[in-house]
Structures are given as structure tokens and as C-alpha cells.
Amino acid sequence: MTVIDMHSHFFPEMDASRSEKARISGLPWLLKTDAENGYIMVGDRHFRPITNACWAASARLEDMDRCGVDVQVMSATPVMFGYSRPAKDAAESAAFFNDLALDLCAPDPARLKVMCQVPLQDTDLACKELERAMAAGHIGVHIGNHLGNRNLDDEGLMTFMQHAASIGAPVLIHPWDMMARERMPKYMLQWLVAMPAETQLSILSLILSGAFERLPRSLKLCFAHGGGSFAFLLGRVDNAWQYRDIVREDCPNRPSSYLDRFYVDSAVFSDEALKLLVDVMGDERVMLGSDYPFPLGEQQIGDLVRHHADLGDEAKARILGGNAATFFNI
């Protein structure tokens, strides 16, 4: 059985000239404090501390060996997206980060895979960079779950996802720029409350708007963090669809009938939550995702699935690697 962790993040090193240019421009860059530690900087501001697992393939491979992970799929740390920047600048930055990501995979490309990022604020440039990155060796694309007030049912974002389907590019959707941050200044509440809500909002924006009726079934979509609060609240959504016409106005079918249109990862951190997730989604729609190497990620990657008493061997094999192998054509 091949174990594939399909949700992990990286933040690359860059040379001194590029780092200084990023600092002046207010872009994210890496400030190393020693060989194993550093900070993601945004301009002159400390954004978050990180370890060399973000930028050193050797550290990542060592952790993969420790956890029994055969393949890890990396994606950008969301602060790298640059969606608020001018589209041309964001396109140049995306291409730069995408090339550095492939460099990070170079020490062991059989075990280290990566998804690209794109300048999502400009559909044409996003499609162009997706094509370039896929041709260069990326195995999918990682996008944020919204652009300002534009949810995933926005026409531009729909066009991009349709294009991703047309060239066979799987899409990982990750929450970012969380809602109501002014009400959540402490205790990581943005990550603990807003992030799951953002993900549920993204899924429902596709279901209730009728977007899935216009997206091809060939589109491979995955939502991070177990789909956020979606699985737990799906009964509420179905109930609302049944009894309120304003909920089903643009959604021709019961919301729970769309579960075969997307995947989720396994980053839910408790036996009870994983059981609910598998009960709702089916074990063929859940993939191992750790959120490595950040503190809110699974520290012993895959243990929640491996040791789950209610999952059989076949279900564990699908979640630990089989589903991701199909999703990414690995």
C-alpha cells in the first residue's frame, strides 16, 4: 500500500536579491534565523514562524520516513497567493513560486509532488499559468476558496475550474483570508472557527447556486480540512432545501446528492469526526491530508486513519493512498 499525503504546504527559499525585492514590495519572503528556523515575512512584518520542513527537501523526507509516508503532495502556503495584487504582478509571482516548488521536488521527484498556484484574479492569466505549470511537472492546482466577495460560483472562477477540467488538472480548494477576523483577534479563532465555516461556504456556494450543474463531472475537486463544517451540518442544509423554496431556488437536487462531485481530506483530528466524515462522504471520497508541517496539522501523519477502529483494511487503504493515486494520476 502506497501512503500519499495530499495536503501539505511549503514556503521556498529565495536568493538575497529576490528577498529584498519582495520585502520592498510587501510580498512574502523567508527570513531564516538559523539553519532550521525562520519566519515568513510580509514586507517588514513577521507573518508566522516556520521550520526548515517548509523549504528543505531533506527535512521533509526525513519526516515522511518517520511517519511512513511514501509520497507527499505540496501546495503553497496561502499567504503566497497574491490575489489582491495587480494581476500581472501576481502572475509573475505565481510562476516564480511554481518554479521554486519544482526545485524543492528535485531531490526525490518520485516522492515529492507539487500543485501550482495561479493569479486567480485574472481568469485568462490563471489558465495560462496553469497550463505552463502542468506542462512543467505540477500535478494539480491549489486555489483559495474565494476572491474578496466572489465565491466559487463566480463566473470567472467557474471558467477557471472548467478549464482545469479540460486539461485534467485536479483542484485543491483551501480556505484563506477568513471571515469576521475583527471578531476573532485571539486564540487562533480565525483558524478554529472561520476556517471551517469558509470551507462549508465554498461547498454550498457550488451546490446551492446550481454551479455543479454547469461544471463537468470530469472536474476533480478536493476541499481541505475535511470539508470544514460541511459534513456535520449537511442534515441542516438538506432540511432547509426541503422546506424553504428560497434555498432550493437554484439547486434542482437535494444537497446531499452532490457528494459524488468532490473529495475532502482527512484532517479532522478525532476518531468521531473521521467516522462521521466517512459515513457522510464514503471512504472513496476521503484522502489522507495532514496540513504538514504546521502546528495545527497531524503530527504523526496518517495515524488517525491507520488506528481507526471503525475502518476496515480496504477503507484504510483507499484513504491512505488509493484515492489520492486516482485523484492525481500518481
From TrEMBL:
Protein name from the UniProt record: 2-amino-3-carboxymuconate-6-semialdehyde decarboxylase
Quaternary context: Monomer.
Primary enzyme class: lyase
Keyword Heme applies: no
Keywords: Decarboxylase, Lyase, Metal-binding, Zinc
Pathway(s) of this molecule: Secondary metabolite metabolism; quinolate metabolism
Ranges where the Amidohydrolase-related domain occurs: 4-329
This enzyme's EC code(s): 4.1.1.45
Family: Belongs to the metallo-dependent hydrolases superfamily. ACMSD family.
Source species, domain of life: Bacteria
Gene3D superfamilies recorded: Metal-dependent hydrolases
A Pfam family recorded for this sequence: Amidohydro_2
Cellular component per GO, a single term: cytosol
Molecular function terms, GO-annotated: aminocarboxymuconate-semialdehyde decarboxylase activity; hydrolase activity; metal ion binding
Signal peptide segment: none
